[in-house]
Amino acid sequence: MNYNDTDHLIDTVPIPMCVWRDKKLTPTEKILLTDITGLVKKYGKCFKGNSAFSELLCLSTNRVSKIISGLKLKGYIEVKFDRNISENIEKRHITLSQ
Q: Which of 20, 56, 4 is nearest to 35 (CA)?
């Protein structure tokens, strides 16, 4: 699988009406969730890092991290990590919750 952080520029992903109308989500959460959804549909998982989301949304990486954590707490996404022998995070996998 070849994933490039610019792949989100190739395809457009409409915001699903169920996301658009969801009053529990902020506009920024809706945009981030839509980007994640498009990548999950294309690759099966989203591997995009906070810095790439940060550039797309003009937010700090810390803010992106908080938004992703919020989407996880609200039950929209699942986040898993690949760790190396030293337990350092090597890669994050984001999928949509069922």
A: 56
